[in-house]
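Below is how a single chain appears once it has passed through the pipeline. First comes the sequence as given, then the structure the pipeline wrote out for it. We keep one example in the README because the format questions we get most often are answered faster by looking than by reading.
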Amino acid sequence: MFDMYKVWRVVTLDTPAVAFSAFEGVVDQWHTKQASHPLPRWRDYEISDFAGWYGWVSLYRIDLQARDVFAELFGSNFAEAVGFDITGKSMRDPASGVYPSYAERTFSHLSEVITKPGFGVRFFSLAALGRDHVAGRIIDLPIAKNGDEATHVVSFMKPVDDESDTVIP
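Resulting structure:
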């Protein structure tokens, strides 16, 4: 089984933003958007909030009943880096191009992010597929689509130059 992720972790929401290195700003922003709600709501974000991250942001809806992840948005730079674009697709849909084992592992990880809730952190490398130049870190932030219960995850990907750049809590 191929698993491009070398690290899958969920940490508490009170983990200091500074612990997330390159993601410190998006974690601080998440806390600002949270304000008086248990979780930030998608509608609290503006497109300008993602400046500097355009193409590296993905929005996933997690369907706990169906055990599926639906990519409402899959960043274009992220899609180019990993070699597939799942915008508007279920990860379980064979047409998505996602390995079934990866779809299941992603569901398990992102469902923990929304049910705990916590911040998800991942490190991936495509070296096993002969693409040594493709590696990155991802942070997964739980959000509520409309109410106060987490239903979605907004993810930010940061490419890294080599596999030694894995600074995540």
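The longest helix spans residues 100-115.

See the next section for the split statistics.
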